[in-house]
């Protein structure tokens, strides 16, 4: 009985790791290339200021 449980657990863990690895591989490949084979650049390269500056408010 114990051997069957361990075997089942080992198969489950192996399948989970394989599925996760496949998902990460597909996700990273999709994020790095475009349909025409080019590479993507991030849409936002700098995060906005957490609070408005005087320039944002038109005071500067």
Describe this structure in words.
The chain has 1 helix and no strands. By secondary structure, the chain is mainly α. The chain is elongated and about 75 Å long. The mean pLDDT is 72.
> What percent of residues adopt helix (DSSP H or I)?
40-55%
Shape: elongated
In DSSP terms (H or I, runs of 4 or more residues), the helix count works out at 1
Measured between the Cα atoms of the first and last residue, the distance is 76 Å
Summed over residues and divided by their number, the pLDDT gives a mean of 72
DSSP strand tally: 0
Proportion of strand residues: under 5%
Q: How would the blueprint of this fold be written?
A:
Layout: H1 2-32
Record keyword descriptors for this entry.
60 residues, mainly alpha, 0% strand
Gist?
The protein is mainly α and 60 residues long.
């Amino acid at each position: 009985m114990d051997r069957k449980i361990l075997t089942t657990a080992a198969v489950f863990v192996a399948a989970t790791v394989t599925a996760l690895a496949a998902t990460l591989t597909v996700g990273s490949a999709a994020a790095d290339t475009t349909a025409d084979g080019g590479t993507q650049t991030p849409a936002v390269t700098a995060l906005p200021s957490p609070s408005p500056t005087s320039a944002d408010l038109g005071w500067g």
